[in-house]
Amino acid sequence: MLTGLWNFKAQRGLRDWIKANDTSTTIYHVHGFHQTLSPSVLCPLKRVKSRTVMHAHDYFLACPNGAFFDFQSAKTCNRRPLSFQCVSRNCDKRNYFHKLWRVARQFLQNKTRYRLLPDVVTVLIHEAMERRLFPQGAGGPVVPIANPAVSLLETPVSAERNADVVFVGDIHEYKGVFLLAEAGRRAGVPVLFAGAGLGLAQLKKQYPEHRYAGWQDRNGLRNVLSKARLLVAPTLGPEPFGLAPVEALLSGVPVAITDEMSLSQDIVSREMGRSFKAGDIDELTEVISHLANDDLAIARMSENASLRAEELSLPPVKWCRELCDVYAGLLEDAVNKAR
Q1: pLDDT in tens, 111-149
Q2: Does pTM surpass 0.85?
Q3: Three-state secondary-structure class, residue 41
Q4: What is the DSSP string of 136-157?
Q5: Cα separation of 142 and 128, whole Å?
Q6: Burial of 308 (0-12, 13-18, 19+ CB in 10 A)
Q7: Got the DSSP string for 302-334?
Q8: First to last CA, the chain
Q9: Is 148 helix (H, G, I), strand (E, B) or coil?
Q10: For residue 179, which of 97, 234, 253, 226 has the smallest C-alpha distance?
Q11: DSSP label at 125?
């Protein structure tokens, strides 16, 4: 509990490494530090803040539970982080004590990160994250760089020839798997769930009519997508990115996606899928029932996905180049300031 709030060992380790190894061209790229490393690792970065990048893969830079989601009401949370309304609300997936612990960690993180501003650069995996993370302004440079993704299939499928409605990912209530299973039941459409997680056993017991492939490696996912007609992404909260939907689209498979996910508007505007209101069982049932039987709609979405899905993510090589451009900008600024 204490090291999660402030890990002195991690702080000393990074401080000593910087002291022994830092150069004028060393870049510090910080990813998910919240759990194991704790906010303490931000402290030694103060001396190299002009060469530091923080990568926001989730909402932990602002929200105590990292998701802007109330796990008790199963709805998106729009409260201002660390406000009285936020602190007094038990939104944690475990209990209120754990929420208060998260609040303490968030306070320490915000205070330490503030010392890195305005120099530190924040990389977002989707531009829509900025509105939630920094409604009053980021206080420093923000750069959106889409996550890397590649098609699992050499040739995109013609999805209208396939029958499977699939879900790929973590089998957890937050991911909307129980909502999807119920919608599939009401629509009379069996769903193939590919993945593992805490909710798998209960899902199997409650909805035995669906198919469960378990966790799959990339070869297994190729097989799943090669037979897929539609991938459903029913996550209940504002997930900033979704690798499974993007990989499906790159493979020619249309996507039905909740309107709370950042990719929703990107997908709908390119006519590569359908959006539905998060948590709305009736709307999701209608979407599944319709697309399970409308070959023309699926064919149109599948073709559009084959043509435009690459606009939602980056090939790995280009993703690396985008990051290197950020690094180069930091080093150039550092050189100019040193003159």
Answers
A1: 999 999 999 999 999 999 999 999 999 999 999 999 999
A2: yes
A3: helix
A4: T--SS-EEE-PPB---SSSS--
A5: 12
A6: middle
A7: HHHHHHHGGGGSB-HHHHHHHHHHHHHHHHHHH
A8: 45
A9: strand
A10: 234
A11: S
